[in-house]
Amino acid sequence: VQLVESGGGSVQPGGSLRLSCVASGFSFSSYYISWVRQAPGKGHEWVSSIYAGGAKESYADSVKGRFTISKDDAKNTLYLQMNSLKPEDTAVYYCAAADSLTNLIADKYTYWGQGTQVTVSS
Question: Would you say residue 76 has pLDDT above 80?
Answer without folding.
Answer: yes
